[in-house]
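[agent] plan:
  1. take the single chain provided in the ticket
  2. run structure prediction with default settings
  3. attach structure tokens to the ticket
  4. add a short note for the reviewer (M.T.)
[agent] executing step 1
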Amino acid sequence: MSSTEESQLKALRKRIDSIDEKILELISDRARCAQEVARVKMQSLPEGESPVYYRPEREAWVLNHIMELNKGPLDNEEMARLFREIMSTCLALEQPLKVAFLGPEGTFTQAAALKHFGNAVISVPMAAIDEVFREVAAGAVNFGVVPVENSTEGAINHTLDSFMEHDLHICGEVELRIHHHLLVGENTKTDRITRIYSHAQSLAQCRKWLDSHYPNVERVAVSSNADAAKRIKGEWNSAAIAGDMASDLYGLTKLHEKIEDRPDNSTRFLIIGNQEVPPTGEDKTSIIVSCRNKPGALHDLLAPFHTNGIDLTRIETRPSRSGVWSYVFFIDFRGHRHDPLIKDVLERINDSQVGVKVLGSYPKAVL
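[agent] step 2 finished; step 3 output follows
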């Protein structure tokens, strides 16, 4: 390296050091502001009432604003991730959030929780989706994260059924690209694999790859991918299908990477809580509609959306758990329940249909 190049590098490193010092000072200023926000909230509340520290609409606005201002060279996803962690750490100075997720540790649901809330939250693994709902309903945690649909395999019915049983609000959504890997342990004899563990959804999402590469190997569905990863630690003839988080957490090796049948494979997760979320301008609303089984029921249900130009993003049908209704519709659409056109649609549906339950209006996934 020439003396000129060394001089240029020295100058650049000095400039980086100076920028790092400014970043440190600004992050510290932001953290002190967060502490001041907590102090002001506590002072303004009646005695005995707890403040609301986490505001989903505020977080969504900040991330969208940052991405609008971003000029590169870092892309919007990376910039949003950095700011999410800054906000998560600053919020923890006010009050660390407790977030329940479908466990055990290392699941894609935990990855979704950390993507949405950042790594400064206290994540609490639960054994079943309904347990996540119960923890949130009981106030044992601030929020819960549950999967609701996969781009390859469709709706997660356990989540839809839980919404019929619990009165909770949807406060946000997360979309996560799902990459599956075939994992082995240090004792696995890779040429003698006779069993592959994974969640039933993951086995389905990798069906064609498994048919091609391991057609005669037993496929065993377990409660989660993380559970699959834990099982193979003590077995020499088995492998697991799971993601990066489980691979790192349980010290496994990727025998084959990205084995999902569809490269755009992704899962949508919902954030559930006990608070309603004000409008942000970029919102979605989810409802449940109970209908009698009669001719034209679906047409009557959808007509107000068409008339008001409301963009439907998802419709799912589930059998009703009561003996009164034949079926229920789960519907997602763009807009907030307080928007005039949305209010009109909900009023018209409520007049013509038997029952409408608004699950929540919430900011649509930032990324």
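[agent] step 4 note for reviewer: The first helix runs from residue 3 to 44.
[agent] ticket updated
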